[in-house]
Fold this protein.
Amino acid sequence: MSSTPGIPRRPRGAGLSRRGIVAGGLTLIAGAAAIRRALAADLAPTPRQSAGPFYPHRWRGEADADLVQLSGQPRPAHGQVAHVMGRILGRHGRPLGGVQVELWQCDALGRYHHPGEPRQGADPYFQGYGRMTVGADGAYHFRTLKPVPYPGRTPHIHFRLSGSGIAPMTTQMYLEGEPGNERDGLFGRLGAAERQRLLVALRPAPALEADALAGTFDIVLG
């Protein structure tokens, strides 16, 4: 039988055989299974750390997610603005909604906003503490300051997580490349892999705010 003009005849044996179709299907299934296994793999939990002596047990001031600008104040806090953001995740990488995230740190002069800390010389324009409850996507975002060192500690920011069905968890975020990290007692107690999970690079973020920094700190609850 002659071929249709203009359409070349398919050579015998060309195209996919039944065996080839089955093999290809099995490859796709195996690939999908590998992806599912990877997604289901446990993430390493964020290391727990001490809340320290300056956790604000009885906070009476503002407590929103902007620690830099207090309501009714004419000027922002001293120091370089840093946007710290991330997600609260479960061990399988799924976002956890409804978790309350608390953040507190010292001001640009190394002073905490706390009854146990002398307020003389502290920055009256720095809020010092903030909190928010994450939505279904597990995302949080605080506008705060780049942390500074003070005697005995490398720069760090405290976090505390709590919520229905989870045990309260406290940790600390450290700055990548900070010289004082190696001399810090709490940071030094961690193993190398644990340290990496607490280190964050703060980089210029002009899209968010002029002269501000930004970094991402995802927290995995074990």
